[in-house]
């Protein structure tokens, strides 16, 4: 083959399907789609690129460390928690497709002023805050719902307190060794890898499926003494099987690994967190939607996460999510508690 021919093939090889193109292609499948949801997803992708840039150079720009304030959960806010919250809220407000936002970093519903738009968003702007300053993977988690209140009016708390089954889309961004955006609109789970030199996400993991069974368990055993007897028994069972304990301490990172390799992530109720630590509206519902779309399961130990009727904006829940056979197994142990 002529040298230039070879070069030509190399330099004209397709880069891949860009996120924008993929969203547009998916939209064409729905004759009544109006493009608002597509634009909303693009708004989230844009803000994530800015946050990705800030995370990558955090050590040089002084944005590591605490912001000095506390969020509604009484947690010390990291500077990047505040910056990510600001960036996503602005992108969603300016984008015009979101009328209301619930964020981990804000006490109440944020009214964006876009009262004619039909979507609301719940978001964990920066997940895994304890890992920001130590260069370990962190993430962003989001859910999108159709509002229930009338168009042209401000968003209401009822627009936000919807069951996970009502999600129209959900996803996360993982800021790790590579940056990935993974999302679903109820038609499979698709992963995109960020190409920094082009400033664009490209399809790298189409139609992701979780393994039916696995040998990885993710739990912070530091709270072991306050776990219920059934969780202690389940952990013994994991160790008898010589499964691998893997725990990053960033929910998005642990979830993503288990999605790719098979596994289970557990955050049971503990003495410190009697209702569990993770938040239903902007952490668990999104990952439960994704894992079910990928063939997995998500429960609070008593019911399917997506069937939980939310009561408050920042409510917490115990969370067991991952490969279906592994979640069913931990459920068997948990059911013993009720006997
Ligand atoms: O330190 P712990 O108790 O193991 O909790 C770790 C968990 O808490 C979280 O950091 C909570 O999320 P935020 O960082 O968004 O508050 C999860 O990402 C993680 O899985
Ligand atoms: Mg979080
Ligand atoms: Mg967070």
Task: Compose a concise summary of this entry.
It is an enzyme of class 3 (hydrolase). With about 350 residues, the chain is of the alpha+beta class.
Describe the structure.
With 339 residues, this protein is an alpha+beta fold. It has two domains: 16-205, 2-Layer Sandwich (Fructose-1,6-Bisphosphatase, Chain A, domain 1); 216-338, D-Maltodextrin-Binding Protein, domain 2 (3-Layer(aba) Sandwich), CATH 3.40.190.80. Helix content is 35%, strand content 23%. The strands form three sheets. The chain has an eight-stranded mixed sheet, with helices on both faces. α7 (229-240) links the parallel β11 (216-218) and β12. α7 (229-240) packs antiparallel against α10 (324-338). It starts with a helix and ends with a helix. The mean pLDDT is 94. Bound molecules: 1,6-di-O-phosphono-beta-D-fructofuranose and magnesium ion (2 copies).
Layout of helices and strands, plus pairs?
Layout: H1 3-11, H2 19-28, H3 36-56, H4 58-61, E1 66-70, E2 76-78, H5 79-95, E3 98-103, E4 110-111, E5 119-127, E6 138-146, H6 157-160, E7 167-175, E8 179-184, E9 189-195, E10 200-205, E11 216-218, H7 229-240, E12 244-245, H8 251-261, E13 264-267, H9 280-293, E14 297-299, E15 319-322, H10 324-338
Parallel strand pairs: 3-5, 11-12, 11-13
Antiparallel strand pairs: 1-2, 3-4, 5-6, 6-7, 7-8, 8-9, 9-10, 13-15, 14-15
Helix pairs in contact: 3-5, 7-10
The structure holds 1,6-di-O-phosphono-beta-D-fructofuranose and magnesium ion (MG) (2 copies).
The site of one magnesium ion has 4 residues, from strand 5.
Binding site for Mg(2+) 2: 124, 127, 283
Organism: Sediminitomix flava
Pathway: Carbohydrate biosynthesis
């Amino acid at each position: 083959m002529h040298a230039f021919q070879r070069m030509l093939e190399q330099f004209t090889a397709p880069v891949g399907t860009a996120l924008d193109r993929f969203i547009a292609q998916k939209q064409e499948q729905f004759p009544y789609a109006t493009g608002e949801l597509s634009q909303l997803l693009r708004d989230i992708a844009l803000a994530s690129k800015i946050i990705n840039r800030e995370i990558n150079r955090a050590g040089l720009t002084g944005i590591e460390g605490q912001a000095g304030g506390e969020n509604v959960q009484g947690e010390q806010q990291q500077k990047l928690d505040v910056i990510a919250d600001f960036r996503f809220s602005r992108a969603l407000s300016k984008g015009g497709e979101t009328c209301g936002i619930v964020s981990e970093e804000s006490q109440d519903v944020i009214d964006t002023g876009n009262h004619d738009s039909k979507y609301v968003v719940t978001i964990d702007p920066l997940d895994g805050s304890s890992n920001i300053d130590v260069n370990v993977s962190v993430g962003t988690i989001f859910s999108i719902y159709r509002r229930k209140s009338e168009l042209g009016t401000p968003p209401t708390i009822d627009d936000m307190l919807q069951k996970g089954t009502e999600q129209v889309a959900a996803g996360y961004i993982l800021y790790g060794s590579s940056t990935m955006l993974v999302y679903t609109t109820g038609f499979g789970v698709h992963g995109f890898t960020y190409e920094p030199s082009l400033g664009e996400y490209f399809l790298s993991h189409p139609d992701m499926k979780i393994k039916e069974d696995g040998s990885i368990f993710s739990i912070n055993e530091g709270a072991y003494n306050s776990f219920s007897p059934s969780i202690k028994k389940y952990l013994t069972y994991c160790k008898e099987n010589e499964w691998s304990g893997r725990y990053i301490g960033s929910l998005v990172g642990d979830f993503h690994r288990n999605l790719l390799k098979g596994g289970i992530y557990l955050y049971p109720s503990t003495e410190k967190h009697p209702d569990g630590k993770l938040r239903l509206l902007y952490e668990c519902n999104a990952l439960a939607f994704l894992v079910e779309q990928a063939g997995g399961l998500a429960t609070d130990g008593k019911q399917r996460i997506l069937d939980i009727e939310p009561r408050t904006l920042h409510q917490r829940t115990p969370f067991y999510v991952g490969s279906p056979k592994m979640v069913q197994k931990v459920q068997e142990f948990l059911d013993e508690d009720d006997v």
